[in-house]
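Page 42, continued from yesterday. The earlier attempt failed because a stray header line got pasted into the input along with the sequence. Redoing it now with the clean sequence only.
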Amino acid sequence: MKSLATGIIISALLFSAGCTGKKGNINYNGNPEPLLQNAYIRLPLGSVKPAGWLRSELEAQAAGLTGNIDDFWPDLVNSSWRGGTGEAWERGPYFLDGLVPLAYLLDNEPLKAKVKNWIEPILSSVTDSGWYGPAKNKDRWPLAVSNKVLMQYYEATGDKHALDLLTKYFRYLRNTPPDWPDKEWRGVRAMENAVTGYWLYRETHEPWILDVTKSIEANSFDWTSYYEKFPWDSAAVAEKKVPLNWGPAGLTAHVVNNAMAIKYPGLWYQQSGDKRFRQAVLDGIRKYDLNHGQAGGRFSGDEHLSGKSPDRGTELCSVVEYMFSLEELYEIMGDVTLADRLELLAFNSLPGTTTPDIWAHQYDQQSNQVLVDSEKRDWSTNGNFSNIYGLMPNFACCLANMHQGWPKFTGSLWMATNDNGLAVVAYAPSVVTAKVGKGREVIINEETDYPFSGTIKFRISTGSRVKFPLVLRAPSWAGQATVTYNGTTRTVGGGSTIRLENNWKNGDLITLTIPLSLRSERRFNNSVAMLYGPLYLSLRIDKQYKSTRLNYDNFGYKGSVDWEITPLTAWNYGLMLDQSEPGRGFSIGVNPVSRLPFADKGDLVWSADSGKYVTWKEDPPVVITARGMKIPEWTMKDNSADIPPKSPVNPEGTAEVIQLVPYGCARLRITEFPVIDITKMRDQIR
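This time it went through. Structure tokens are written below.
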């Protein structure tokens, strides 16, 4: 209790300045005591709207699987969650966890009508005990997801029925014995309920809600100790000790459970006040990177944690869940590295595992992915279809769960500060409408092509002058960033934030410039991955799409199809890199950002106008020319690119011009390159 009280006092001193007699933000619900005050405050759903290329991405999602899947996939068409007689577990709530924010972020009336048709049966299902949902479901896990759905729905609509239902359900949890066994999904994922629990406490200030979250934390799997000891390290992978099963130990090695669980110590930190839990989050991320880290900001798991080799897969569910965990954690901790990681996932791993039109997805993506088909791969536990871009390659959880990635990222781009200002979390074109200062509403248009460009403009709209702070972030990979506004120029070092306090007027323009330079990152077997700003770069491989039929009915509804993708050009290149001058030999080309920002020339995309697939003819926003050399002995193994030969590799061939494109634009790719030792060949790359 002493450490908790101390934390509250320190937080109050740090954040109460400028609040004119009231602690914290007077416009939005921050954490009431006894919770610690968080670094930032999430804005209600709908406060941030997408613009520019990001709106195009969400519109593609609405026109693709998210906007259509419940019209033809039987698990959703006949879902018990919408009053049918079919699937009654997680798939309905998973789908709604993306559909609800997408509908309201786009103000899309047909999607809002879909939401209503799902939500009304859920709201009417609550019983006197507080339990709700399909009568045949007896498991608490899908309700943990549904809770997050109803939380977002309430924020978007103000429908008190949703708030009442959530209050009743948390009373049910208070009044019933703990039921969080380690051998079940609801046990290892129990703290997912705390996301809604702390939100509900901020809304209602009911003290007994904290008793519920305390009981859940005390009676469910101890992820904090797991991160401190971390049993599934690289040695466990090498010695084949990672449990590839669905027992209690296997569930702790399951990639999606890990992506969800990384936020659990951070959630509990709000209530405990013990910095041990905050540190466990940072330790966990570091250990994921050290033992299972992959290009694109993610960690491997196909379906269980499987090491650092670029032939390993990562499940799509884990990407969107890791993103959501980071969004929650940044609100709590405000650590810049968390936002850096969020951008890496959003701009690389998320688009890299779907087709540009978002009509198909992979279950498992690879950093070095040179063939997409249904042949056997060396996955830990997943099936042969996991690499296909399609409707339901492997288990159907990702088909239901993938939809939350882009909408939740959009809603998290901006947050409120504790001193009545605004903070930019991650950068993308958007418009935020929020209350600042003493309750004045402002609109800020964020105009940018970031991450494809490093120039970001913030244009303020306000009826009259209003004083509030604006917090901007300089990514850790940037040496420094420059901010100009009202004739003032300021610089901020990479990995930090800058606070702009000003009496802003209508039309004020703030310009943030983040230099997007090439840099390299050492990867598996001393290979190298190249980055341009927050974008990983991959070898551009000419490709051929071929529709295929897996062992299920893909229904052929509009753009729904299963794709095999085969290479038409060589992929086994080493990258010619001058270690003393990494930028030498590279030429950066920038193109207009199209309506499908993560498409590459030659991709097949669905045309709703013609009712067929057409070939995409535009280049990605960034195309970089480099020098490479084929490595004949680097070949396929188990239908994947074999592990890269250990670098440096002696040059034995002819230097060739190769092209690199953003990872998210490359359905086929090499991202972790062997390095060709060019110490004696510099004249060839001038």
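Notes: Confidence is low (pLDDT under 50) at residues 1-21.
Reminder to self: strip header lines before submitting.
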